[in-house]
Design a protein that fits this description.
This protein is mainly alpha-helical. It is built from 4 helices and no strands. The protein is elongated, with a radius of gyration of 25 Å. This is Gag1-like clamp domain-containing protein.
Length: about 90
């Protein structure tokens, strides 16, 4: 029984993820704006070498500047290895 509706699959447009396209475009612009020497620049650690996990957690104040994720991960791995939580 045909109720006058066409069941053609061509009536449904292909899905386009506009959010992903915008994200990718923004990412490419961000990568293009970085200078080559800036990408390989070794930074001084934001967290001092004698900082401990506990001293970083006892304050509720924000850090004076952003801390790179890799630096936080290194600190956590060191703590976990000392406490035998990470092997």
């Amino acid at each position: 029984m045909n109720n006058g509706q066409n069941c053609s699959t061509s009536s449904h447009p292909e899905f386009v993820n506009h959010g992903y396209l915008l994200w990718n475009q923004t990412r490419l612009q961000w990568l293009a704006s970085k200078k080559p020497d800036e990408q390989r620049k070794v930074r001084e650690p934001v967290i001092t070498w004698h900082a401990t996990y506990d001293t970083l957690l006892v304050t509720n104040k924000p850090f004076p500047c952003p801390i790179p994720l890799a630096e936080i991960v290194d600190l956590l791995v060191d703590v976990w290895e000392e406490e035998a939580l990470y092997e």
